[in-house]
Specification:
Helices cover about 35% and strands about 25% of the residues. By secondary structure, the protein is an alpha/beta fold.
Length: about 250
């Protein structure tokens, strides 16, 4: 079956030159963006109940923009003046750049990984005497605590925000040729919203092995997979699939 419509279970990209918009134009398909999950901050009271005292930490590990936003939100709610001496360990350049929303970049000690937590870990290891706080969601990737424990550093995870299933009831009678998922949470949201969902002719595209496993565990057929050697990005995987089936 030919592909005419795609639903991406994430917010619409804010950049004009997103590869999704280029894909839409090149392949003459319609792409909608609807987040299947969203983030909600926990209260400062919840953070205190986790026995977290912000004044005790000398370094912060930031894995996403959400972790940046919610760390500074909680700091403000607790009337904690973030000291200039605090060290920031950012998962990627994008996270470090976003940090500028809250701090004067050149006056702070900021250490930046390339993309993965494994690439950030040698920088953390260099500062083993620091006391690290990891403000994160309730859906933290398991490799992060494993890596920190292996490094033998003094660290604590704080749940500063939660991943919540979005209400998708407005999609009940809407059909898409392809549904695109980036996390097991997205798959969970699909079935929480539509427990009787049947795949039939809908193609499922997934990013990453854990998402693929979640899809299969729910009885879904995975038709499009990324990243792979041939398709390092989701847009490339979608384009190659569309070219193949729309040619028929």
């Amino acid at each position: 079956m030919k592909v005419k419509t795609i639903l991406v279970s994430q917010p619409e990209p804010k950049v004009e030159n997103s590869p999704y918009f280029e894909l839409e134009e090149r392949q003459r398909v319609k792409i909608d963006f609807i987040p299947f999950i969203h983030v909600e901050g926990v209260s400062s009271k919840d953070v205190r109940q986790q026995k977290i005292d912000l004044t005790k930490y000398t370094a912060i590990i930031l894995t996403s923009r959400n972790s940046v936003d919610h760390f500074f939100r909680i700091a403000e709610e607790l009337r904690y003046k973030v000291p200039d001496s605090l060290k920031y360990f950012c998962l990627s350049e994008a996270v470090a750049y976003y940090l500028q929303k809250y701090v004067v970049y050149r006056k702070r000690k900021i250490y930046v990984g390339k993309r993965t937590f494994a690439e950030l870990s040698p920088l953390i290891k260099k500062y083993k005497t620091e006391k690290f706080l990891l403000p994160a969601s309730d859906m933290l990737k398991p490799d992060i605590p494993k890596t920190l424990n292996k490094l033998g550093v003094d660290w604590k995870q704080g749940i500063f925000y939660r991943t919540v299933v979005s209400d998708l009831s407005h999609l009940r009678d809407v059909f898409y040729d392809i549904l695109v998922f980036f996390s097991p949470s997205g798959i969970k949201s699909l079935f929480e919203n539509f427990p009787d969902f049947e795949q039939n002719d809908t193609r499922i595209a997934v990013f990453g092995n854990t998402t693929a496993k979640a899809a299969k565990d729910h009885g879904l057929r995975v038709d499009i997979m990324a990243p792979t050697a041939e398709n390092p990005s989701m847009t490339m995987a979608l384009e190659n699939y569309i070219k193949k089936v729309n040619k028929k």
